[in-house]
Amino acid sequence: KPLSDFFVARPGMxxxxxxxxxxxxxxxxxxxxxxxxxxxxxxxxxxxIVLGLGFATLVPTKGLPAMVVTSxxxxxxxxxxFDAGPGDSHxxxxxxxxxxxxxxxxxxxxxxxxxxxxxxxxxxxxAKVSLADYAAHSIIDDVWAWRADHGNDVGWTANKGVTGVxxxxxxxxxxxxxxxxxxxxxxxxxxxxxxxxxxxxxxPYDPPRQ
Length: 210
Hints:
Layout: E1 6-9, H1 15-22, E2 27-30, E3 34-37, E4 41-43, E5 49-60, E6 67-69, E7 76-83, E8 93-95, E9 109-117, E10 125-133, E11 139-147, E12 159-167, E13 173-180, E14 185-189, E15 195-202
Parallel strand pairs: 1-2, 2-5, 3-5, 4-6, 5-7, 6-8, 7-9, 8-10, 9-11, 10-12, 11-13, 12-14, 13-15
């Protein structure tokens, strides 16, 4: 697609400004840097492309999601880092909803997307779920969800992550899924007829007791 089809966002822009760009039927490029978000960026339009350059980093600042994709028809996300902020977000990235039903002909794509809880941001960051994928037929390709075991201010009560990846959509396919150090469940996958090709996992090193 030509660059004219994209709204080009820069760190410091408000969520309202970014969503206004999306509302003009444009796709979204997030240029390199850290985006401190006071609320979630909402992706409503089917077929929207969201492309991060230099692994643009999205940080929710008020315990909310960083991005919510409400469409389940051909949305493509790539080249992003979702970094837990202060508070306790119930999810960092949500794709689809409990009622969403994508199609095999127009699957949502989550590609080269990384999640980080702790290690870079300040103490007491957290998210109950890093990635919640409700979209049927969606494709997860090269996703790493990491509750930090080293870096700035890490510890059992300092950077809290309950579940790394939650998949409820049917017929979801994952290629190269890595999930590390979450405090309760690394992955929950309840969707039917799913497939994962390569899974890497490390349990947390820092539980205070068995």
